[in-house]
């Protein structure tokens, strides 16, 4: 089971590719929503208001991906899909790549455009700080004080990451567990006497 994903931690420095007087500026941004992607796109349109095209591709999600591509007036599939192809090649997600084109007066043809948009996207990704994260599930463990020792022993034994503790009349501890280990950890607590556990991932 794949339980990791790759993304960038911050916006990449501007990348530039030139072909026959046309300039292609590549940018990569970490994003978690389509609204964030639209915000960065509008910022670039303001920054490069004299440009001819603002082509982009984004992908969101950690395991169930959804994506969007846009040729922004370039010939069909000559810009957005080559950009998206680099997102797939670098195996990154939660990312937006925009390539801004200034037309240089010479038509590049579809093949030339595909190469230019692909290369500008590649350069932007190469400048980005790509990191790998685990895909985690979050569990709530609930129990009464007499069970505290056994719960803490299980947490220590399995080196689990405690996110939060709520110790009042009864006790609740929240842990995050790698997706590939989640079923086994759930069973450990679920079969422990007087200890309850539930999956609250995404709540």
UniProtKB/TrEMBL annotation:
Residues 20-125 form the Impact N-terminal domain. GO terms for biological process: regulation of translational initiation. Pfam families: Impact_N (PF01205). One of its GO terms (cellular component) is cytoplasm. Transmembrane segments: none annotated. InterPro entries: Impact (IPR023582), Impact_N (IPR001498), Impact_N_sf (IPR036956), Ribosomal_Su5_D2-typ_SF (IPR020568). Belongs to the IMPACT family. PANTHER family: IMPACT FAMILY MEMBER YIGZ, IMPACT-RELATED. This is Uncharacterized protein, YigZ family. It comes from Salegentibacter echinorum.
């Amino acid at each position: 089971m794949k339980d990791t994903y790759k993304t960038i931690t911050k916006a990449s420095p501007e990348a530039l590719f030139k072909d026959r007087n046309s300039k292609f500026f590549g940018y990569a941004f970490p994003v978690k929503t389509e609204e964030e992607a639209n915000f960065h796109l509008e910022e670039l349109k303001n920054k490069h208001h004299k440009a001819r095209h603002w082509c982009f591709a984004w992908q969101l999600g950690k395991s169930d991906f959804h994506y969007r591509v846009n040729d922004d007036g370039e010939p069909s599939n000559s810009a957005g899909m080559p950009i998206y192809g680099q997102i797939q090649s670098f195996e990154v997600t939660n990312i937006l790549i925009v390539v801004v084109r200034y037309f240089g007066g010479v038509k590049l043809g579809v093949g030339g455009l595909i190469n230019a948009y692909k290369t500008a996207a590649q350069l932007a990704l190469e400048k980005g700080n790509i990191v790998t994260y685990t895909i985690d599930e979050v569990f709530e463990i609930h129990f009464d004080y007499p069970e505290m020792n056994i719960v803490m022993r299980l947490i220590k034994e399995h080196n689990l990451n405690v996110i939060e503790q709520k110790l009042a009349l009864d006790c609740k501890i929240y842990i995050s567990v790698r997706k590939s280990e989640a079923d086994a950890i759930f069973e450990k607590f679920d079969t422990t006497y007087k200890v309850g556990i539930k999956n609250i991932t995404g709540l």
